[in-house]
């Protein structure tokens, strides 16, 4: 008979692989996890409370600070929700819609690159980090050229876009797109058939499709489990219905499949970008704003709208009282918060070192978990 | 709970008055919508009211029966609980009735459509953690932020705020600048109702009006000067005339140094 030596240890809150300030209370027997309990809230800034006290346009920079590695999609979700409540979704000029798609797909690539770099370095592969940041820097340069910021973009407005594309910007993105597929191949050549990588990821943290839906998992973790569901396809917004792209799905629902799904998503995002560049050239320059009132005062009512952020379904639930310029209540449905909830179920029975891989594969950003 | 009315709902008959507005369907018509008809038929007496805005259907459910109704909807294909959000309606214009509302957003993959269920409450709502596992953290967050008690929840504890925090930040009567904290976890340091003192004023943080300049800059408080580099000595009182004449130049030199540094 074995002696069971149960021990409780703290993983985090200052552990480098927790990607922020996440604490996981572990009950372990030797190296094996009996129970994991995530403790969150270290980065709570009361964003939803702040939303209630500022006008709708003032909220947009605060959405940047939630998922701070994918701020363009945060902006997109918020402005689309307010537009839906105001009933002006159809009035957004085409050029602004295409520009929104370009920015959010660039953001998806950059978010996935950051995920790949840190996920690989957590597991022990140092090299992909440098390759990923090489391309990510270029994307951040595009953001900087468009709006001046690299991370917290604040790049969308209710009713349209603030600026037209800078000179030479589209050509630079085109050149980037031409090279990017080869870059993804390069990352894959480092990892996909790497024996150590597969030993660390195959069969780790398996989620069945039913279980994933039960836990409310969305985004690449859901698709890694084999559910072909992407909000860009299921409930399309902006110009996504016109675009040709595939929704990659996995089979086994393990960490390796989620890795493959994200790699393919980067290629598909690149494909979308390549289609968007000719489309935006066809539209008249400067046609970026719908003719809506400068004072945003939506009618009384409630609305829920969500978009496919790089992490999953990012939703906003806004209640407006119809009398003021600020939301009566704005609730955010962050994908990271919901996806993190499945960590205990995924980690049970695995080794402590696998927990690092699991936190990486869920792709959480603590700014979004804690808001 | 069942006789509560939603806030300031326009009567259905008043809606067609504006010719440009799209036709607004009445509650009975919404309940017959093919999206929800099957589920509503099986829980008809629990569905109190229905509304529609920008194409989203909201059904108002009897609070005591929300868990059963959620189970019915889940069996009918709404297998994914997208979101669960609480709202404090206490400052909503013209609102009467219970203070809180909880909104459950459900999604059906088969129909590719969402529906929202809502309940009104003054405090207690049956938990739906037995229906969806994902409701666990959503309900904990709603409890933490609004103080709504989800009965039957396996571990209803704070999730974003720290244990021992006294208050629910998203309630409308919670001040945006925060409240006095600390009393609960460090009673020996911060007596009940005491809390941290604001800088130089010696008053509790909440009693200080920041906009009137009551809380002076940190530099003016003696504690901030510790370790702040070479600081001039505090100005000495004028040398008394009875002092011996010999040390006077020394004291004057020291004063000069102090003035140069300052």
What would your notes on this structure say?
The complex is a heterodimer of chains A (371) and B (262). By secondary structure, chain A is mainly alpha-helical. Chain A has helices at 47-51, 56-64, 71-86, 94-123, 127-147, 169-191, 195-201, 209-214, 220-224, 231-234, 255-282, 335-340, 343-347, 352-362, 366-370, and strands at 6-11, 23-29, 32-39, 301-309, 312-320, 329-333. In chain A, a hairpin with a 2-residue loop joins strand 2 (23-29) and strand 3 (32-39). The termini of chain A are far apart. Chain B folds into two domains: 12-151, Beta Polymerase, domain 2 (2-Layer Sandwich); 175-228, no CATH class. In chain B, a hairpin with a 4-residue loop joins strand 4 and strand 5. The A-B interface holds A 40-41, 44, 46, 48-50, 53, 84-85, 87, 213-216, 227, 229, 234-235, 300-304, 306, 313, 315, 317, 319, 321-323, 328-329, 331, 333, 337-338, 341, 370-371 and B 8, 53-54, 56, 58, 79-83, 85-88, 91-93, 103, 105, 109, 112, 114, 116, 132-134, 136-138, 141, 145, 158-162, 169-170, 174, 176.
Quick take:
With 371 residues, chain A is mainly alpha-helical. Chain A has helices at 47-51, 56-64, 71-86, 94-123, 127-147, 169-191, 195-201, 209-214, 220-224, 231-234, 255-282, 335-340, 343-347, 352-362, 366-370, and strands at residues 6-11, 23-29, 32-39, 301-309, 312-320, 329-333.
**Whole-number count of domains of chain A:** 1
Structural class of chain A: mainly alpha
Domain tally of chain B: 2
Number of helices of chain A: 15
Shape of chain B: globular
Average of per-residue pLDDT values of chain A:
89
Assembly category = heterodimer
* Strand order within the widest beta sheet of chain A: 1-2-3
Average residue pLDDT of chain B = 70
Tell me the strand percentage band of chain B: 15-25%
Please list the strands of the largest sheet of chain B in the order they lie side by side: 1-2-5-4-3
Largest pleated sheet of chain A: 3 strands, antiparallel
What is the succession of H and E elements of chain B? HHEEHEEEEHEH
């Amino acid at each position: 008979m074995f002696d069971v030596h149960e021990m409780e240890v703290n993983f985090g809150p200052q552990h480098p692989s927790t990607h922020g300030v996440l604490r996981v209370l572990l009950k372990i027997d030797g190296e094996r996890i009996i129970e994991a309990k995530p403790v969150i809230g270290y980065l709570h800034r009361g964003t939803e409370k702040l939303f209630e006290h500022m006008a709708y346009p003032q909220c947009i920079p605060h959405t940047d600070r939630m998922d701070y590695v994918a701020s363009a999609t945060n902006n997109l979700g918020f402005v689309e929700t307010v537009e839906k409540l105001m009933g002006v979704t159809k009035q957004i000029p085409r050029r602004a819609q295409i520009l929104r798609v370009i920015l959010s797909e660039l953001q998806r690539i950059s978010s996935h690159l950051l995920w790949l770099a840190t996920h690989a370095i957590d597991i022990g592969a140092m090299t992909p980090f440098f390759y990923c940041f090489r391309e990510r820097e270029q994307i951040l340069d595009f953001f900087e050229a468009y709006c001046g910021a690299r991370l917290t973009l604040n790049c969308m407005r209710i009713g349209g876009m603030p600026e037209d594309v800078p000179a030479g910007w589209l050509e630079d993105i085109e050149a980037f797109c031409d090279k990017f597929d080869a870059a993804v191949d390069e990352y894959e050549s480092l990892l996909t058939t790497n024996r150590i990588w597969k030993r660390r990821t195959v069969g780790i943290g398996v989620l069945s499709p039913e279980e994933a839906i039960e836990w409310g998992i969305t985004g690449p973790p859901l698709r890694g489990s084999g559910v072909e569901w992407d909000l860009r396809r299921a409930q399309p917004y902006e110009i996504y219905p016109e675009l040709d792209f595939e929704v990659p799905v996995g089979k086994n629902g393990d960490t390796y499949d989620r890795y493959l799904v994200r790699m393919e998503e980067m290629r598909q995002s690149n494909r979308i970008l390549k289609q968007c560049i000719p489309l935006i050239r066809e539209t008249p320059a400067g046609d970026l704003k719908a003719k809506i009132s400068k004072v945003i005062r939506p009618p009384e009512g409630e609305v829920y709208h969500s978009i496919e952020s790089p992490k999953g379904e990012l939703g906003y639930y806004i209640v407006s009282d119809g009398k003021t310029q600020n939301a009566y209540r704005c609730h955010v449905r962050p994908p990271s918060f919901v996806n993190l909830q499945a960590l205990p179920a995924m980690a049970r029975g695995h080794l402590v070192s696998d927990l690092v891989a699991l936190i990486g594969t869920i792709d959480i950003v603590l700014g979004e978990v804690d808001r | 709970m069942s006789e509560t009315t939603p806030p300031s709902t326009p009567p259905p008959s008043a809606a067609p008055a504006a010719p440009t507005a799209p036709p607004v369907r009445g509650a009975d018509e919404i309940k017959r919508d093919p999206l929800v008809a099957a589920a509503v038929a099986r829980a008809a007496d629990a569905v109190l009211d229905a509304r529609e805005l920008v194409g989203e259907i909201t059904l108002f459910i009897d609070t005591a029966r929300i868990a059963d109704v959620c189970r019915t909807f889940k069996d009918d294909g709404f297998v994914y609980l997208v979101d669960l959000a609480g709202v404090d309606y206490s400052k909503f214009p013209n609102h009467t009735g219970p203070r809180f509302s909880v909104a459950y957003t459900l999604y059906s993959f088969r129909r590719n459509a969402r529906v929202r269920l809502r309940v009104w409450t003054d405090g207690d709502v049956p938990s739906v953690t037995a229906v969806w596992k994902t409701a666990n953290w959503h309900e904990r967050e709603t409890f933490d932020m609004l103080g709504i008690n989800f009965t039957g929840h396996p571990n209803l504890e704070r999730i974003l705020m720290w244990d021992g925090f006294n208050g629910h930040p998203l309630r409308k009567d919670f001040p945006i600048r925060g409240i006095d904290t600390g009393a609960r976890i460090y009673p020996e340091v911060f007596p009940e109702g005491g809390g941290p003192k604001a800088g130089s004023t010696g008053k509790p943080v909440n009693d200080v009006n920041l906009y009137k300049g009551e809380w002076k800059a940190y530099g003016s408080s003696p504690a901030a000067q510790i370790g702040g580099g070479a600081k001039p000595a505090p100005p000495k009182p004028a040398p008394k005339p009875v002092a011996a004449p010999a040390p006077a130049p020394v004291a004057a030199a020291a004063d000069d140094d102090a003035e140069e540094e300052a």
